[in-house]
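Go through the following before class.
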Amino acid sequence: MLKTDINLLTKFCRKLLFSSLILSSPLALAEDFTIERLSLFVSDGANVYENRPLNTAINTLPSNISVDFQTKTDANGDTVWQWNLKNKSKVNYNNLRITGLIDVDLDAPSNTFFNEYGSLLSLSAPSGYIAPDKWEISEPGYLKGDLITRASHGSLKNTSVYNDASTTDDPAMALSIDIGNLRAGQEIIAVATLAGNSTIGLTQQDSITSPKTFFNFYAKKGYFDRAYPDMVQGGLLTTGSAIKEGNVWVWGFRGSSQQGNGTKVVSSNKDPAKVNSLANIIGLTGGAYHLIALDNEGNVYGWGQSGYGETGCKPTQSIYVSTPCKVLKNAVQIGAGEYFSVALDADGKVWTWGHNLYGQLGNNGKKNSQIPIAVDLKGEKARLIGGAYEGAFAVTEEGHVWAWGDNEASGLGFQGSNYGVQKLIRTPTRVPNLDQYADRMTYIAGGNGWGEALLDDGTVIGWGLHAALGQGTTKTNISSPEPVVVMKNVAQLYARYVGSIALTEDGKIYTWGQTGGSAFPMIYGAFPTLRTPHANDPVVSVGGGKEHVFYQTESGAIYGVGYNDLHKIDQTKCCASSIDWPGKGVTVGNTR
């Protein structure tokens, strides 16, 4: 992944997770502190890595672990340091522990090298973050043993040898967190704070003049780019697509300009082909017959069928766009419904284009739009968006969820109509039932009469049609706007049309949803159902379309399950029967 990819993704992650913690005010360290050393250690029980960003900068992290470091001040003027560590490889790191170590000298009047001491206040972290479980306050070098060595291995003593004012040495402070496994594509965000007043973390104090510093350290782990796994997350009917090394590959039905190389029709029995005009792509989604891509510079491109304007491009052949055109710039997220598209830009603005019969564009009209339309969220800034079947969601930095479009079966989170009966909401409207979860959402999307969100602790919640939410029923007369818990321990979620596929933190695949339809019984189930992928090749990404799912493994292999037509899954047959688990391999480029 290119450096610009990482910058864009980490920029988005910071906006997503730390908008209330890290402000844009300039750095203003207190004048009576001298920071001798700040280190982030990463250990896996066998190897030790370090990122030391201040003073003598050192970075020994593996080349496939990218690091982005920032220094900020919060609303109280306290210092906040943040590391974004991303596993951009195809392998997993196991048994990880991260440790933050700081050596602060107090420079107040009358202070000397030998009158500082430290103590533990408490170990805690903000909601949704992992708190330290090991700590130590000690001299970092030769006087009391090598704290730096113990910190680098995470083997701290949960003790302080500097717990009273009679201490005559200069202590350093370390806090350590058990992270566990870091899967391919996963990220750790580690935050260290240095405050002038606190009740948590470790404190260092001068015995003569009593200035204090307070050090705390906590972390969050997850698939923070999970909206953009390599597999497409959209509603494509008989077309397959994926991102490989920044390139877009398309296969299966390509009779509506989906191939994107200037020709309206490419036979479905042709090999998967790369979209020649696109590069450095980090996001890919689509509707029934159109595709939307996002590159690492924030440019959005559209192509395929555009009878309603869903590509955002002026058709070049009847209602078709055969070569991707640039639709929007400065974007950080994209989504799609059946015949419309939605995007979020870096300023927190939401844009929609395409079909509008059911209020999908959120502008209180019915007219379709070939160009992006700004969505009015009453002055709030969005940080997360998601497409549903005929509607959309936006989650704002202010902690609210907004929704618009078809609220059939309460699928937008409001009390709605019965399943199969449309209930239209043409302007973005706050969803009170979801406000309590808004700050914790990392993914949101929906299908026909239902919606789901993935929370930062791996919990999936859903609302609307219970038959699509894994609640143990196949009846379509049971729905509710009240959120229910679907499952936990989820790292990646794909929600579309009538069901969902989840990848758990330990690499297992579960599916749930409605079971009526050509391939739905083998794809979904009334409850979250454990599926068996191909053995000995860990799954790293999931996605799919309207009646099929794809998953990608650590080796780069892609497998498809579900409705099989026009060489979408079985590339040797036009109209083969549906493919059951563990799926059939799809050859894309030089890998299967």
